[in-house]
Amino acid sequence: MAVPNIKLNSGYEMPQVGFGLWKVDNATCADTVYNAIKAGYRLFDGACDYGNEVECGQGVARAIKDGLVRREDLFIVSKLWNTFHDGERVEPIARKQLADWGVDYFDLYLIHFPVALAYVDPAVRYPPGWHYDGVSEVRTSRASIQETWAAMERLVDAGLARSIGVSNFQAQLLYDLLRYARVPPATLQIEHHPYLVQPELVRLAQHEGVAVTAYSSFGPASFQEFNMEHATALTPLTEEQTVARIAQRHGKSPAQVLLRWSTQRGLAVIPKSSSEARMAQNLDCTAWSLSDDDIAAISALDKKTRFNQPSNYFPTEKLWIFG
Question: Which residues are involved in binding substrate (predicted)?
Fold first, then answer.
C-alpha cells in the first residue's frame, strides 16, 4: 500500500503515515517493528524515553538482513530527552541513540519536550525519566531552548540527523524558535485528536512551513492506564457516536476515520498496533476521503482536553530544585 510523502523544509521527504513506538513492550518490540515493516510501514517514531531503541534497532536490522528494506528506505525518528538539553550533552546522547538503533543517522531528531532537566548520566540510569533521583525530585537545568537548538543544528552539520524538529511546543515557543533558528524545525509533533484539535497551532506551523505530526490520534485510549480522571471519563474516540456513524457510512473502522481526519488536513500520523490486521488498516488512511461535513463534525468534538503534559508525571509531593 503506497503511502504519500510530506516534503519537509529540509528538502527531505517524510512518509505521512508512520508507526509509533511509545509503550511498545521491549519483549515484543523487535518483532513488532519487523512485522510493521512487512506491513508496509517505513517511518518509525522512537525516543530515548521509550526505553526500547535497542529492540527497535534489532527489528530494523533483521528486516534489512532479510531483504525487506534497505536503510535508505526507512525514515527513523528519535527524540532528545529533557535531561540532555545542555548544549554539550546533545551530541553524545544522539550518538548513543544512533548506536542503540544500529544506524549512522536519524532522518529526524526532535526535542521531546520544551523542558530542560538536570543531567543524569546514562551510566547511572537510562532512560532517565522525569526525576533526578529516579523517585520524586524534579531538578531543572538552566539550558535555554536556543542553546539546545544550536546543538541540534550541529547534529545536522555533522550528518547525524538529516532533519531536526520539536515536539510538544506551543505557538509562542515555536514562533520564538523560528526567529533565531539557523536550521528551521522541519516538523512539530503534538498531541492531536478530536478532543484536542489545536487549530491555531496547526495553522501557524503549516503557514511557517513546519510539517505537523499528530500523536495519540485515538485520544484518551493511550492514557487510560495512567488512571487520569479526564481520560477515563471521556468516551473513547473509537466508540464516539459521530465517529462511529461516519465510519459506518464509509465502510471503514473508527480508527481509520480518526487517522484520515488528520491526514486529509495535511498532518502526518504515527499510530501503532501489535495486530498485523490493524497495522494494515491503520496504514489505509490516505487513499480515500471524508466529506467536508465529516471533517467539520469530527472537529466539532473539540473539548480542548490535553492528556500528555509534564505535570502528569510529577507526584503531588514533588520536590523541585532549580539549578
Answer: 112
